[in-house]
Amino acid sequence: MSDATLLGGASLGLAGAVLLALAGWRTARRATTPEASALRAFAAFWLGAAAYAAADATWTLLHLAGLRTLPIDLAIQQAKLLSLCGSFAGLVCYLLVIFTGRPGARWLVGAGYVGLVGAWATYLGWRGPIGHHENEWSLVLDFARPQVAPVWAALVVLLLGPPLLAALGYASLLRLARDRDARRRVLLTSGSLVLFFVPEILVVLNGPTPTWRLVEHFLGLVAAAGIFAATRPARGEPDHHERARRTALDARVRELI
User: Fold this and answer.
1) 9 versus 176: which is more confidently predicted?
2) Which of 16, 213, 222, 237 is most enclosed, with most CB atoms within 10 A?
3) pLDDT in tens, 190-241
4) Secondary structure (H, E, C), the chain
């Protein structure tokens, strides 16, 4: 494998991580309302995605620098697992607050994802990581034991299912977006979420291929650029008298998307 392609993949990953981190920072800055916990959860989604991309890119850069030990592999995998689960928990919490108006639901979601982290860590530990090898555009962890298809499928469904449903729910908010800035955020964010999840789903269904890893890097970068554009500050503050006349869901949509 070429070091140039590995470096290219890492560079795309880092660029995406920077855009995602800036989007998360922008979202967190808007968390000044009584329902700010929802926006903080949404910021956690993008910041967690940024951490995942940065960890994966760092793994490649360490490999290219000659640091190829198993402890590094394990540390990176743990960082990726924690950031990914934290990210998805943030998205699910955000949409639950918008649709239900109950911030307390985030504790149940958090507990579920803590359990999922434990399940993934147990399964990966049982398979016995022994090192890694180079793919065309990234690195792949090697295991002593083969994949157990039913367990793998169940864990993937538990990991991707709730945030994917939440992403679809987010797209449905377009009908409640009453101003241009809100519609812009919903459209750009929905499109970015599609680009965020589709590559992972296709990899699960078809398995990773060297060419697809490059496509995945590019789609991830486009998704990051989309959410960066979506989090551009709105042109004006919401009208509080108008918001008071809306339904509770309408008000949350106006305030939190």
Assistant:
1) 9
2) 16
3) 888 887 777 666 666 666 566 667 777 787 788 888 888 887 776 554 444 4
4) CCHHHHHHHHHHHHHHHHHHHHHHHHHHHCCCCCCHHHHHHHHHHHHHHHHHHHHHHHHHHHHHCCCCCHHHHHHHHHHHHHHHHHHHHHHHHHHHHHHHCCCCHHHHHHHHHHHHHHHHHHHHHHHCEEEEEECCCCEEEEECCCCCHHHHHHHHHHHHHHHHHHHHHHHHHHHHCCCHHHHHHHHHHHHHHHHHHHHHHHHHHHCCCHHHHHHHHHHHHHHHHHHHHHCCCCCCCCCHHHHHCCCHHHHHHHHHC
> Which residue type does 171 have?
A
pLDDT, tens digit, 9 for 90 and up, residues 41-79: 889 998 999 999 999 999 999 999 999 999 999 999 999
Residue boundaries of the structural domains of the chain? 3-256
Residues 43/31, Cβ–Cβ less than 8 Å: yes
Question: Which fold would CATH assign to domain 3-256?
Answer: Rhopdopsin 7-helix transmembrane proteins (1.20.1070)
